[in-house]
Specification:
homodimer, 282 residues, alpha/beta, Rossmann fold, 6-phosphogluconate dehydrogenase C-terminal fold, 8-stranded mixed β-sheet, 10 helices, elongated, oxidoreductase (chains A, B), PDH_C (chains A, B), Prephenate dehydrogenase (chains A, B), PDH_N (chains A, B), Prephen_DH (chains A, B)
């Protein structure tokens, strides 16, 4: 019997479990979480067959999925390296920065276990087991960072085929730069706008309510989990600061064009940004 | 018979006309636009009863609505001051910056015509007469900037009651600061992110496609009309630069916290921004 061990039954972990259940109903799923309420819910809903904490039964699993925050994943990888795992086990994670995690997986990789980093590029500002749903990542990109050639990649794709994602194989550092640019910097930008707008209207908070759809759209991601985002800033700070500095440079250049009332440049920049952004909708 | 003159039959102008038609089907509506195709469409669809260019029949109107770009509105106000208008006429506009427009309306105001600046705080990244619809501004805020006490305000609200908006009376400069902060600065921020992201991946454009919903949401408003936005940068540049500088200060402060790995500060800022942003959804 194929056994899947999943540690961390939040938004992502429970979404992966739902997809595995749908596609491979015969697989046995063991769930681990720090929250008893979450484990109770998972058992009641039939999401998992057995529940535990820490690495309970991880040594009996054919697939190990680490779906906690990056700091937990790093610790889990160290702990797994102290255990004798099932031969042929495939280990993966869902952390949003990859170099830190690949580094932590080195002892496992060196002794021959198969580790494939993973990261689904979608999500929700919601969190928790009840927010997970089988189509959460549908049609989104799901990064895979193989570390032992192509070993285990097709098995992992098959395990998670119920997600209906677009798989994208990539190196850790390139992944971390992409997410710094397309996910982490946008989060910083949106947070700064929300923070500064709230400060501007601190004595007239009702004025914030005048915000139209454009403001709400631009700041939407500031609603995400602050614990997760603080950790991301820690784990990917070198590349976040690098891409943020490039962003600041661009913003200063636009500020200069506004100050100088350089209509030609402003029109050119707005036009190109419009065209680039429209391309993302196709 | 009540006659309404509307100059500029694009997204906003045609939306206002649709709302007037619905609520006051007996009113006569005269439309003016630089595009013959737009006027033809408006006549065919029964949106207007008569069509012309420039200020055709504006001198016979009980309501004059200027719905072109700000530069056109400013010119129209100067031209209107050369005409003898109908006694009791109420003049309004829909421009997104108000001080420039109120300044241009001074000659009309000084001779006793009633001018009430207006600005609906919603919209669409679409444009043109076919994108207008009667519920476009439903439940959004619609600023009014009266310049002759309360004269004409209730008549104007009644004329546009089919929009079902929340009216918000305000002074021109306060209006311009609010829109600088909640609309214009966000547009600059989103444009800079789109521009710099496209530059980062200029040799691998397919990587931009990896952007998840958060990036798309943050940059959505960069899709808006570049001509309109270049003009807004001109018309409100003093307040845009002022609020943008405050934003840059906040962003630099967050950058510093990331560089210093100041987890306590990052968590505090992310938490407050999350709470502030969630308040906007209620």
């Amino acid at each position: 019997m194929t056994t899947v061990f999943v540690k961390g039954l939040g938004l992502i972990g429970s979404t992966l479990i739902r997809a595995i259940r749908q596609k491979h109903p015969q697989y046995r799923i063991v769930g681990s979480d720090i929250s008893t309420a979450t484990l109770d819910f998972a058992i009641e809903q039939g999401l998992i067959d057995d529940a535990g904490t820490n690495l309970y039964q991880a040594d009996q699993a054919d697939f190990i999925i680490l779906a906690g925050p990056v700091s937990a994943i790093v610790k889990d990888l160290h702990d797994l390296a102290q255990l004798e795992l099932k031969p042929g086990v495939i280990i993966t994670d869902v952390g949003s920065t990859k170099q830190t995690i690949i580094d932590a997986a080195q002892p496992l990789i060196e002794r021959g276990d198969v580790f494939i980093g993973g990261h689904p590029m979608a999500g929700s500002h919601e969190s928790g087991i009840q927010a997970g749903r089988v189509d959460l990542f549908k049609d989104a990109y799901y990064f895979l960072i193989p570390t032992s050639g192509s070993k285990g990649v097709s098995e992992l794709k098959d395990l998670l085929s119920g997600l209906n994602v677009n798989w994208y194989l990539i190196h850790a550092r390139q992944h971390d730069k992409i997410v710094a640019q397309l996910s982490h910097v946008p989060h910083v930008i949106a947070t700064a706008l929300m923070t500064q707008s709230a400060a501007t209207f601190k004595d007239h908070r009702e004025l914030l309510k005048l915000a139209a759809g454009g403001f709400k759209s631009t700041t939407r991601i500031a609603k995400s989990d602050p614990t997760m985002w603080s950790a991301i800033m820690h784990n990917n700070r070198e590349l976040i600061v690098q891409q943020l500095d490039e962003y600041l440079y661009e913003l200063q250049s636009l500020r200069q064009a506004i100050t100088a009332d350089d209509q030609e440049k402003l029109f050119a920049v707005f036009s190109k940004a419009k065209a680039d952004r429209e391309e993302l909708d196709h």
